[in-house]
Structure formats: structure tokens, C-alpha cells
């Protein structure tokens, strides 16, 4: 009987480590996607300022909604990365002492859905990166400095030549941000209760407010998993 209990404990420990690894994977995907946005899609904020003053850190791209939207997504991904990493560390710490079955199942469900959503975000950001028609800008037009062609009445020709052809869909990105916020709340909650004993974990999971938090995260995931394009058609 002791050997059976020991085997069961080892299996639970291994299962918890798998959950921790998944949380770490999600954190890394969020971080790499944020870096992809910052390094390949966002030009220096100073180039979008209409004045000689330093750009506003809270709104570095005031004249370009698509860049402003991507900048916000990159910031949210980095914040989310911290919550996912913390959860992974907490699960690892708790793996030896035990994770209640009801909590383990909830963790598995939340992590699976969240990872799927983050993977979609990453794929869509890579789509923007590889589509030359998206974020194609006329720097002079964006900074507000007229070119000689514009000064001479060639505004229409210059706009046709260098204007953005397609934009980032702000509504879709908002759904991405909502998913990150919803699962940040879930991960913060899980990080707090996974470190208590199994009995307390089960008691927490039985509370109505916990079900509401998890349901909101599921709803946010449903929208992202619909697979809408981040690029306006």
C-alpha cells in the first residue's frame, strides 16, 4: 500500500511539473511575441513626433493607430509574461507538497486554452511582419513634414505612392489584450492558492467567484480561438 501511495505521489509530482513547464512555455511565447513586435514592426517613436520634443512614452505613435495598437499589445504581453513565469515557479514549488485534483484540472484547462490563444497571437503578428502591405508608411506624411512633392501640389500622387494600404484590426487586438488580462487574473489567483495545502486549494476552487474568473477567461479565449485575422481586409 505504501508503495502504491508513493507511486501515486510521484505521478502527481510529475504532472505538476508538466503544468509548470507549460506555464513557462506560455511565458516565453508571450515574451518572444512582444520582442517580435518591438524589433520588427515598431519604428523609433521619435520619427512619429510632430515636434522636436521627446515622444510621450504613454503614446509614442499619436498619428498612427496601428502602431499605437501594436505598441500596447507588446506591453501587455510583457506584463503577462511575468504572471505566467510566476505561476510556473509557484507550481514547481508546490509540486512536492501536492496539488489538489480539482485545482490541477483547472490549471490544465486554463493553461491549454491560454497557450492556444497566445500561439494564435504569435502567428498573426508574424503575418503582419511578413505582409508588405501592412504598416507601409510614408514617413514624411506621418511626421507631418511635407515633402517637396507635396509642397508643389503633388499630395495625391505622394499619398498613393506611400500611404498605408491596410491596417491592424484594433478590435481583434483588443480581444488579444482581453485574453491576456483575463488569464493574468487567473494566473495570479492560481499562484496564490497553489502554495497552500490541498484541502485549502479545494475549498478555494469551490467558491463561486473563482468560477466566474475562470468563465471570463474562457469567454476571452473563445474570441481569440475563432482565429480572426489581425489585418483589416
- What oligomeric state do the depicted chains represent? single chain
Supply the number of helical segments. Answer: 9
| Strand-pairing-aware structural class | mainly alpha
* Share in β-strands: under 5%
Poorly predicted residue ranges: 1-7, 137-164
- Give the termini separation: 63 Å
Protein name: WGS project CABT00000000 data, contig 2.1
Biased composition (Polar residues): 144-153
Region (Disordered): 41-67, 137-164
Organism: Sordaria macrospora (strain ATCC MYA-333 / DSM 997 / K(L3346) / K-hell)
Report on the structure:
- This is WGS project CABT00000000 data, contig 2.1.
- This protein is mainly α.
- It has two domains: 172 residues; 27 residues, no CATH class.
- Helices cover 71% and strands 0% of the residues.
- The chain is built from nine helices and no strands.
- α1 runs antiparallel to α2 and α3 runs parallel beside α9.
- The chain starts with a helix and ends in an 8-residue tail after the last helix.
Structural key phrases:
mainly alpha, 2 domains, elongated, 0% strand, 233 residues, 71% helix, single chain, disordered N terminus
Give the SSE map.
Layout: H1 2-40, H2 65-94, H3 101-130, H4 139-143, H5 148-151, H6 155-162, H7 170-193, H8 198-205, H9 208-225
The gist of it:
This protein is an all-alpha fold and 233 residues long. It contains 9 helices and no strands.
